[in-house]
Design goal:
With about 500 residues, this protein is α+β, with helices and mostly antiparallel strands. About 35% of the residues lie in helices and about 25% in strands. β15, α8 and β16 form a beta-alpha-beta unit.
């Protein structure tokens, strides 16, 4: 473990997470970072299978909540970005001046995603009359179409989503899944008759988040972002953060309430019950491949990944003993067991490579397969398969109830991952030391430590928040939607 290295040359997660993480995403064959454009990794089969399983959970939630899937073009004309920039600039000024955005007119000003977009300015040998850009997100593209789809109150609510790649010119240091230039992205966009209906949509989004994070075994912090960290063009933003092993937060999702500002900018109206044209109220909800980054970071250990069973490409790997002159065909038995498990809905891999068992175990530990079944002549004679959990622990499982036993063990592995992650968050999230203000000066009782997240009861002003940020050297996540510090004796 010395020098930040665990056994077998793997960096130690506990001693050097920043070295462990990039090593692991490549060692586990999730992505290959050697593509000749920075921040655009190549998804390898194992990583893409994992991401598609996360997508499948999201698709199921969208189906359950009556969202319809769409697919918009990648290219967006420049004039739509200018419209977005004008809206964002006006909302920014309204916040700064404390006035209603409707009191201000649109002005040409830098804002939104303009500094982050990739441009397409010629096709073949011809310059384009109107430059186009690759979508960083899809408000401008979608809201151009909304007025064509929404005519009356009967068309509401409109609830659509897409899973696409978005592009942002990220100038900071890139990191697989966490900060990339080509992003596997989920975005849901909705339009509603009024502000209250849009607010109910935000609550539904947060319930979806809870269900997804339960499946990923990730505890999260949900917080309404401060004004200065609100998504451009939003009335308010709720960020969803996972707590990484180093005590830092990673935003894995966000929900935005737009009120009617985007509708006014893009003329998204409907005819209400009184036959009057009324602007819609809109919301968005977004997630990305950061979800996979959070899973890697939170659940992995010094031996490799630990995949939650819900998204593991292989929930069970079966390793038959391969040796010459065996009296029983262990490989055939392994495939029979695999077929039985597959018929009951489990994702199974039989590793019948002619390799030393230790090499196989190493490969599947790195990839984080939740459950390994070893099958040898003695196991077959005893009517069992020997089970090894990726979270630790071994036991024989009876062959005659092998399917039910595998499901039981996988459920227990999920519970164990949730318990570990929740305990980590309990350890990291602490009450902030008391602040005192006297005669215009501030003091703090105690100290803050790196690797912790602090919670405090706060009803002060933005200026007060800036004082706290300056004194602690930390940034405000926002107003938590629920308390996270457990009562301590």
């Amino acid at each position: 473990m010395g020098h930040g290295k665990a056994k077998r040359g793997i960096p130690s997660k506990t001693e050097n997470f920043n070295e462990w993480y990039p090593f692991m995403v490549e060692a586990a064959e999730l992505v290959d970072k050697r593509y000749p454009i920075k921040g655009m990794d190549v998804w390898r089969p194992y990583g893409w299978k994992t991401m598609k399983l996360i997508d499948a959970l999201t698709h199921a939630e969208m189906e359950r909540t009556n969202h319809e899937e769409v697919n918009f073009p990648l290219l967006i004309p420049e004039n739509l970005l200018e419209k977005e920039n004008a809206l964002v600039a006006r909302l920014k000024r309204a916040r700064e001046e404390g006035v209603d955005p409707d009191e201000l007119r649109d002005e040409v000003e830098e804002g939104g995603f303009k500094k982050e977009v990739y441009w397409v300015k010629h096709a073949g040998e011809n310059d384009l009359d109107i430059p186009m850009f690759l979508r960083p997100t899809s408000e401008t593209a979608m809201y151009t179409m909304f007025p064509l789809w929404i005519r009356s109150h009967k068309d509401l609510p409109l609830k659509i989503y897409q899973m696409v790649n978005t592009f942002r010119y990220e100038t900071k240091q890139t990191r697989s899944f966490i900060r990339v230039r080509e992003i596997h992205f989920f975005e849901a966009h909705t339009a509603h008759a009024n502000e209250d209906d849009a607010s109910l949509q935000i609550q539904e989004d947060l319930e979806i988040v809870d269900r997804l994070m339960h499946d990923l075994c990730l505890p999260i912090i949900k917080a309404k972002r401060p004004v200065w960290d609100t998504f451009p063009g939003a009335w308010y933003t709720i960020g969803i953060d996972a707590v990484m092993p180093n005590g830092r937060t990673l935003q894995v999702a966000s929900c935005h309430h737009y009120r009617d500002q985007w509708a006014k900018a893009f003329d998204v109206t409907y005819e209400n019950l009184e036959a009057k044209q009324t602007h819609c109220h809109q919301t968005t909800y977004g997630m990305s491949e950061r979800l996979l980054g959070a899973v890697v970071g939170m659940h992995g250990d010094d031996n490799g990944l630990i995949m939650p069973p819900s998204i593991a490409p292989f929930q069970v790997v079966i390793c038959p003993m391969i040796r010459k002159n065996l009296e029983v065909d262990t490989v055939a038995v392994a495939h029979d067991v695999a077929d039985l498990l597959r018929k009951r809905g489990l994702r199974v891999k039989v590793d019948d490579r002619d390799l030393h068992p230790g090499q196989k175990y190493y490969d599947w530990e790195i990839k984080g397969v939740p459950l390994r079944l070893d099958i040898g002549p003695r196991d077959i004679a005893q009517g069992t398969a020997f089970a090894a959990r990726r979270t630790g622990g071994k036991e024989p499982l009876p062959m005659d109830t092998i399917v039910d036993e595998c499901y039981r063990v996988l459920d227990e592995i999920s519970d164990e991952l949730r318990s570990r992650a929740s305990q980590h968050m309990d350890d990291v999230v602490q009450p902030l030391p008391t602040f005192n203000q006297k005669e215009g000066s501030w003091s703090m009782e105690g100290e803050v430590k790196d690797g912790h997240i602090y919670e405090l009861a706060f009803d002060g002003s933005d200026a007060d928040a800036e004082v706290i940020e300056r004194m602690t050297g930390m940034s405000f996540l926002g107003d938590a939607t629920e308390p996270y510090v457990k009562e301590r004796p």
